[in-house]
Amino acid sequence: MSSSDLLLPDKPQRVFDREAEWQALAAFACDSRPEARLGVVSGRLRQGKTYLLGALTGALGGFYFGAQQGTETESLSHLADELARYRNTSPPPHWHGWEDAVDDLLALGDRRPTPIVIDEFPDLVRQSPSLPSVLHSAYRRHDGGRPGRARLLLSGSSMPLMHRLFSTASPLRELSDLHLAVRPLDHRRAARFWGIDDLGLALLVHAVVGGTPAYRRDYVGDDAPAGREDFDAWVSRSVLNPGKPLFREAYHLLQEEIDHKDRALCHSALSAVASGCSTQGQVADCLGAPLTDTARCLGLLREHGLLHSEADAFRPGLIRLRVAEPLLAFEHAAVRPYRSALEQQDPVAVWKHARPVFDSLVVRPHFAQICRDWVLHLADPDVFGARPGSVAHGTLADPAHPGGADVAAEVVVRGHGTARDGTLLSVGLARWDEVMDLHHLERLRGVLDLLARRGEDVTRTRPACYSGAGFSPALRDAEARGQVVLAGLDRLYGRT
């Protein structure tokens, strides 16, 4: 029976958005095939995995267990207690090890499809390294798979361990029918989640907290800025307030993800990247650290999903770094230099000093990233003549400039292919706080001329301007003549 033939439960109203995720989970949980199935749910901390999985088990009468760090004996005892409460039996089962526990869990699906969630599964594997093998044996004990309709969902936030447990080479990979990643809300959904209609304000808030759902409800107590004029006051009272959980969240993220011995260097590396160091060599120079130590630190941050690395659009051998989590970029660029002052002074006074840094080092690159995300995931393919295959920042050394200064384009769009040979669909400039005019278009034409002289085919390349402040009438006229693609906040947020 296909998922389209199943009668699936409606998503609870308390779960915001996540339509595709709910559909995938519900279809997996309601699958009526007479074999036990295995699914995997992954995603960084605070993205709502637990909330979503709790809603699923609540809607379908399933079983949920949230693992914690501890010993194997303690975890088995807690699981036995939870299972006894779920089955309304007493006393709890006495297990000799994970083999017994897994058998009892899978037996919950003997009569009907039943979702069984083990949340933060990596915490159990750290205690019991043999647990993945136990699960594999339980599923493979019978030819053709274990009978029953247990729908076991293993969830985790430790991205490196989740990747190792369910990589192509892992024995659990072949057993799993569902691989679901719960990602942060994009900028459009985040604006709706925060209830913000002013698009400029929505982007400013997104530059601080990104699309992490937990930060609104649990970390600032549902406090959202009332308008653009309230943004600075909101940052002072909710983000920089030592009495609010968000105040130390950036440090907690690294504390939960990175081992203590690497944490200090990782904080410094994030500060370097957030402040404009975009290559490994630049970060090493900024830190005064050996390149080997810097490379190991950056690799660790990438492995945990806290740092992204992408090839430059015009120089594929040049790998550019950017902080993946907006709150970490906000913290390490705009707040960290003022941490000691925040412990002693009024946040309003401190934020007045930090705000210009926020505008230049945080909001401007964040706006450019929003533009790249829009192109790749939300823009109609007709905008650039074909579906984009990659979108990246690009730099060129212009020999006409003294010293060979770089010419940058923040939004370079290529069709499907490699960063070197994908069709060049568009070259664009992103300006958060500038009303863009014809001189921006002329600059783009200069970039295209330079690319053509270097042998790049620019016959299908469309100049594009992205602005958070708007466009001049002359540039709008150029758009009407098909000479340039314009994308302002209305377009980026789907209001036009």
TrEMBL record:
GO molecular function, one term: ATP binding
Listed Gene3D superfamilies: P-loop containing nucleotide triphosphate hydrolases (3.40.50.300)
Keyword Iron included in the entry's annotation: no
Keywords of this entry: ATP-binding, Nucleotide-binding
Statement: the UniProt record of this protein carries the keyword ATP-binding: yes
Name of this protein: ATP-binding protein
Naturally occurring in which organism (per UniProt): Streptomyces kebangsaanensis
Lineage: Bacteria, Bacillati, Actinomycetota, Actinomycetes, Kitasatosporales
